[in-house]
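Design job #97: recover the sequence.
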């Protein structure tokens, strides 16, 4: 039987080390892959055939609010994601759940909670602190719209939200400019937007309350 592989995506080396220690205490023979940025996360997703779980910080370099969670769910929908964040605002926890996370661990939690959460999720369950924020219909609609985008289209959308022109997006993502144009047209149609600005506002809506 293959070892359980967990991808820990967080830009703080000391915190990653603490998570690694907690995982090894909780699981026998666990294999941990580390990523310190969104680009490293994307590379790991492309490189690693088997990933059983992702522990995801929301504020790594290259992330924009919940964008890395949305990207992850689009790229590898079969892999469960647990958000691990210092922003434990009830709305942030609820939004992470609505955008596809199966768990949320506040960084202030004791190390044992990480092990308990991981075991629960690997057994097919979920792990959230008691939720006091109500589900948001707007978030549900946004999640549904974004789920229509391919991973490549979502990358284009993030670049578009950064104010890049098609030519710049093409250079950034290694695509032909005409391909970017086709993607932008498809993105606007799928999101029900009439302009790039409207699409950028949707990405802005992914940013959680407070500091993550």
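Job complete. Output follows.
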């Amino acid at each position: 039987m293959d070892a359980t592989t967990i991808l820990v995506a967080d830009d703080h080396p000391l915190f990653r080390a603490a998570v690694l220690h907690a995982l090894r205490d909780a699981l026998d023979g666990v294999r941990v892959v580390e990523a310190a940025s969104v680009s490293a996360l994307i590379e790991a997703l492309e490189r690693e055939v088997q990933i059983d779980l992702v522990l995801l910080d929301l504020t790594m370099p290259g992330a924009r609010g919940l964008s890395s969670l949305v990207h992850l769910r689009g790229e590898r929908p079969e892999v469960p994601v647990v958000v691990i964040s210092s922003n434990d605002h009830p709305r942030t926890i609820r939004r992470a759940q609505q955008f596809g996370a199966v768990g949320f661990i506040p960084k202030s939690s004791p190390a044992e909670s990480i092990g308990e959460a991981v075991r629960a999720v690997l057994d097919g369950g979920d792990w959230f602190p008691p939720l006091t924020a109500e589900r948001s219909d707007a978030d549900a609609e946004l999640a549904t719209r974004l789920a229509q985008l391919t991973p490549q289209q979502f990358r284009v959308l993030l670049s578009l939200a950064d104010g890049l022109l098609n030519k710049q997006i093409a250079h950034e993502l290694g695509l032909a400019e005409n391909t970017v144009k086709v993607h932008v047209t498809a993105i606007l149609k799928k999101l029900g937007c009439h302009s790039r600005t409207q699409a950028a506002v949707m990405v802005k809506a992914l940013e959680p309350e407070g500091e993550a």
